[in-house]
Design brief:
By secondary structure, this protein is α/β, with parallel strands linked by helices. Helices cover 41% and strands 13% of the residues. It is globular, with a radius of gyration of 20 Å. The N terminus is likely disordered.
Length: 336
Amino acid sequence: MKTKRLVIGMACAAVALAAGSAHYGWGPLLAQTSPKAHWEPYKARNPKPSVDQKLTDPVLTGAIDLHAHFGPDSYDRQWDAFEVVKLAKERGMRGVVLKNHWTESAGLAWLVRKYGAQGIEVFGSVTLDTPVGGVNPMAVRYMADVEGNWGRIVWMPTHDSEHEVDYNKETRAKAIVSRNGKLIPEVLEVLDLIKERNLTLATGHVTPEEALMIMTEAKQRGITRIIVTHPMLGAQFTNMSLPQMQEAAKLGGAIEITAGALSRDGAAKTRAIEVIKALGTQNVFVASDSGLVGTPNHPDALAMAIKSLRAAGFSEPDLNRMFKETPARLVGLPVQ
């Protein structure tokens, strides 16, 4: 009798798990092969440490980095949050948004503001990947309500997005934003919260079509601070064509260019410069997206990108717009 009850209980649990997986898009958690999490392969890396090049530039003074990765994290980062902000302050930067793929950073922003480098704006964010429950409105509510109210940016799913997991042919948990060509209700609730709490939307690593659907709904709700997350970084991310980026700009999106794409000669740099010229600098901003061990630190990465764009013919007002003015607007700071 006990055996029969156990079998029935296990069957019910399996049905419940399957139902939950179908609703949230998390996949068969008990039958996965490695990796079960995006960060697992990073633990096996052993890159050379980063070197502080101490680069400076007039445009770096007053710049704001909207995409600054930091430690501690689930794998090694070169600098912790206090060090990231200290470096930015030393180079004269105006502000930093702390970005973590797996947890909110508004509380950490409060701590850095209290105990870290002073005289610099520090903001937090939340990314709607699986550790916070995917597209979970409660995760946004919590981030917005953390003491200090320094949470600013809400990223739609990034490394756990259905698009990225499927592109990499993985079976791990994933966070969905659409089903059968329509945004799920949780996305709409999150957008309502972004508007209500005066936050900033970032589109994450979803498909171009999903990003445009999200932005269309955001515009209808009156959301004016929208980041199109590095749409030229690669196919596993939101890999947009120029017409799609032009449509995104019409919907109010600011196109993010990562500093690394501009600091090295090659096809990525050539395309980035062409896209900036086609879209106009008023529709583009540059963020470091730095933090991995072995990569340039955040101000060094931005300084290299500034020099590269200046060499490509962009004027000082153009550079100020992409590194200072648009980032300030996107976190609700007055444009200086």
